[in-house]
Amino acid sequence: MADQLFEAGVEFPCGGESACGGCKVRVLEGEVPATVAMRQALSEEEIRDGWRLACCAGWAPGAERVVVEVEQWSLDVLTDEARVPIEPRAGRGAAIDLGTTTLVVQVVDLGTGEVLGVETGINPQARYGADVMSRLQYELRHAGELGRSIRETLGRMLGGEPLREVLVAGNTVMHHLFCGLDVEPLTHTPFLSPTPGGYRFADWELGWPGPAEFLPCLGGFVGSDLLCGIVATRLDEQARPRALFDIGTNGEVVVGSAQGIVCASTAAGPAFEGGRIRAGMRAGAGAIDGVHVRDGSLDCHVIGGGAARGICGSGLVDAAAGGIELGWIGANGRLTNAEKRLPLADGVALAQSDIRELQLAKGALAAGLRMLAGGGVEKLNLAGAFGNYIRQASARAIGLLPEDLPIEPVGNSALRGARMLLLAPSTRSARLRRIRALARHVELAADPDFQYVYAERMALARYSLSG
Ligand code: FES
C-alpha cells in the first residue's frame, strides 16, 4: 500500500524509515492496521481518529477496499510560458526543470518558440526522502537506482515524438544522480564535487526521443537551476548588482552583475514547505495559506474554503507576522501567552517548536543573503513557487526579506532559463562559459562570520541590508 500512496502524491520525508511522522494520512474507510512504528510516531488519539503512516501502511488480511485522504499532498507545480527571444530552427525540443520534489517537462516548437505541451509530476526519488541529503544517503547504499528512476520517468513524460534536443536543469544533487556521477564528495565538507560540468547524452543512452544535455552546476549545491535563473533574469548582463533568491529546503542565493557573480546555498530545512511544523502541510485544500490581523485577532484564509486542516509555508510566514503585530510573539520568537500556543483555527495552532523551526529556516536564508548582498544590490528577484506565493509584507515583518529592496517574483526561472538556452543554440555555449567564469561559489559555513550573522538573523524583526 505504501507504493500506491506514494504514487498518489504522499511524500516520505525521511525516506520511509518510519522516523519522522511526516507521511501521515487519514483512513476514511476500511482498515489499515496500526503497526508498532505507527504507535511510536502517532498519539493514541491520532490512531483512533484513523491517522496512519503512509510509508509503512499495509493491507489488513482480507481487506478489499480502503479509502485514504491524500488531498493535502496535492501540489501546485509552477510552469512558465513567458515569451522569450528565439533563433528559429526546424523541429521540436524540450526544456526540463528537474526539481527535488517536482518535475516539469516543456516541449517547444523550435521554429516559433511556442510551448506545445507541458507535463508536470512528482520526482519519483521523493519516495526515498524529501531533501537532498536523504537522497545522497540512499544513493550511497543503492548506487545508480535513483538516477535510473528519474531518467525513466522523464523519458515517459517527454512522450514519443522525436526531439532535436532536450536541456535539463536541476540542483547539483539532481545533476549527479541523473548523470550517474559519484555523489560521495557531496556528503561531507566542503561539499564540492570535482564533476560539476554539463553532460551530454545520446538518445539511445537514455532511451529518450532525442539527445539531452544536463546543464552545468555553478558550485557546491548551487546547480543549473540557479544558472538558468541567472539566464532568465539576465543577472549576468546587469551594470549594477542584483540578487536572485530561491527559497526552499535548500535556499540558494546568487548576487552579481556583468562584473562578477557570487553564489551560495544554505540548508534552511523544510519549514517553508510545511515540514517539521506540527500542523504543517503542503499548499493544498484545507491548508491555511494566508493570515491577516483583523480587529485584534488572526483571520485565516483556507485553500478551498472548507475547514482548516493545517498550515502551509505562506500561512506560516503570515501567522508569525500577525503574531508579532499583536504582541503574541516576541522578537526572540517566544510565544507570550501562558499556553505557549498561537491558535489559528479549530484544531490548528502553532507551538513554540514551530516558531523555532521558522526562525531556523528564515535565519539561514536571511544570513545567506546578508553575507552575499551586504555590499548593496538594486533589486531582489524571488525564484520558485514559494517566492511566488509568499506575502512580501509578512516576509519583511519577520525579517526573512530585507526592508530596503524592491522585490520581484520571477516564477519558475529555472524552466524559463532552460527554454531560453534551448531557443538560442548559437550563443548558448558562450553564454554558459561566461556565466561559469563570472560565478564564484562561496561556502558560507566556512566563513567565521556566518554563525554570528545566522544567530542575529534568527530574530523575528525587520532588517535592512544597508543597516
Ligand atoms: S515516517 Fe518518515 S516517511 Fe513515513
Topology of this protein?
Layout: H1 2-7, E1 24-29, H2 36-41, H3 44-48, E2 51-53, E3 67-69, E4 92-98, E5 102-109, E6 115-122, H4 132-141, H5 145-158, E7 165-170, H6 172-179, E8 199-201, H7 203-206, E9 212-214, H8 224-233, E10 242-246, E11 250-257, E12 260-267, E13 287-294, E14 297-302, E15 310-311, H9 313-325, E16 341-345, E17 348-351, H10 352-373, E18 380-383, H11 384-389, H12 392-397, E19 407-411, H13 413-422, H14 425-438, E20 439-441, H15 450-457
Parallel strand pairs: 4-7, 7-9, 10-18, 12-20, 13-15, 18-19
Antiparallel strand pairs: 1-2, 1-3, 4-5, 5-6, 8-9, 10-11, 11-12, 13-14, 16-17
Helix pairs in contact: 5-6, 8-13, 10-15
The structure holds FE2/S2 (inorganic) cluster.
Textual characterization of the structure:
By secondary structure, this protein is of the alpha/beta class. The protein has a domain at 2-73: Beta-grasp domain (Ubiquitin-like (UB roll), Roll), CATH 3.10.20.30. 30% of the residues lie in helices and 22% in strands. The chain has 15 helices and 20 strands. It has helices at 2-7, 36-41, 44-48, 132-141, 145-158, 172-179, 203-206, 224-233, 313-325, 352-373, 384-389, 392-397, 413-422, 425-438, 450-457; strands at residues 24-29, 51-53, 67-69, 92-98, 102-109, 115-122, 165-170, 199-201, 212-214, 242-246, 250-257, 260-267, 287-294, 297-302, 310-311, 341-345, 348-351, 380-383, 407-411, 439-441. It has a six-stranded mixed beta sheet, with helices on both faces. A six-stranded mixed beta sheet has the order 19-18-10-11-12-20, with helices on both faces. The longest helix has 22 residues, at 352-373. The radius of gyration is 22 Å and the shape is globular. 50% of the residues are buried. The model has no long low-confidence stretch (mean pLDDT 91). The structure holds FE2/S2 (inorganic) cluster. The site of FE2/S2 (inorganic) cluster (FES) has 14 residues, from loops. The site of FE2/S2 (inorganic) cluster has 14 residues, from loops.
